[in-house]
């Protein structure tokens, strides 16, 4: 039976471990905290991140990273973007091909997930998996689709072979930059959509914002060497539709709370899981500025989160931009 490692046992890592188990693989799910591993092994569930969903027999948990990747054909990297660098420092040199599923841009370096891996592990085989996927729905076996992007066609096929089932449909792409930009930007735009709804600005405003959000992620993808049409796919518009409308989104719900007048500190203090758009907003706008691309919605979110703008000021700034052709 092929062995697959899932590195990071948050909501998405756990859901993908379940999915790989369902696809027939022997899965080792790595978590850094031995106490959590022991609790998962005893209860056969990840009570912190995915309560109420049983881990099947084919999924075993470990806190031993070397053992997790030993003999694995593939490793899914499911730690949040801001922790990828620290995680990679402890990963054995002989690790299998890495498939990152994180969505964001690293603060400071302004790198996308595959760029972080390339900087630390030059030449390592990599792919990115992204799309409109709430962890809980995938874990429950509900139908979903995602895209696997890599310049390595054989690796794209291998990821599909090891992870796809009829209910989890995987498409391929040779535009990893476009796919990563979509995944990163949609989290920031989803915060903006939540603000709009929380502040009572209406569905017209949300639809306009989501559509102009696609224009933003498309512009940035092209500037970074990706393709404009990727923005209309699962990792762009598809994920934006889910995240900007689904109340289950952490990014949308954070924006919703801000729009209702709560503070960022209050909202984050109540959360267990990561809200990637918070760190990615300043990082993606800085990356865009570096290549001369304007991201007005993402910039408004970054300024709002930093406390430089109020919600009415952010909306006023977006609405008073000069008129231009679409
Ligand atoms: N949850 C979803 O529905 C979903 C779906 C698709 C993609 N994603 C993306 O997947 C990534 C992970 O999201 P999640 O929902 O699983 O997050 P989460 O907050 O549920 O879990 C994060 C996991 O990373 C671990 N972690 C944090 N810092 C670490 C470090 N330095 N080293 C090792 N492990 C560390 C945490 O212990 C935790 O297990 C994010 O980029 C997210 O945007 C999430
Ligand atoms: O809950 P969110 O906002 O992190 O979104 C989760 C996934 O990225 C949706 O595809």
From TrEMBL:
Catalyzes the reduction of the glycolytic intermediate dihydroxyacetone phosphate (DHAP) to sn-glycerol 3-phosphate (G3P), the key precursor for phospholipid synthesis. Sn-glycerol 3-phosphate binds at residues 103, 131, 186, 239, 249-251. NADPH binds at residues 12, 32, 49, 103, 135, 250, 274, 276. Residues 175-315 form the Glycerol-3-phosphate dehydrogenase NAD-dependent C-terminal domain. It comes from Roseicella aerolata. Pathway: Membrane lipid metabolism; glycerophospholipid metabolism. It is found in: Cytoplasm. This is Glycerol-3-phosphate dehydrogenase [NAD(P)+]. GO terms for biological process: carbohydrate metabolic process; glycerol-3-phosphate biosynthetic process; glycerol-3-phosphate catabolic process; glycerophospholipid metabolic process; phospholipid biosynthetic process. SUPFAM superfamilies: 6-phosphogluconate dehydrogenase C-terminal domain-like (SSF48179), NAD(P)-binding Rossmann-fold domains (SSF51735).
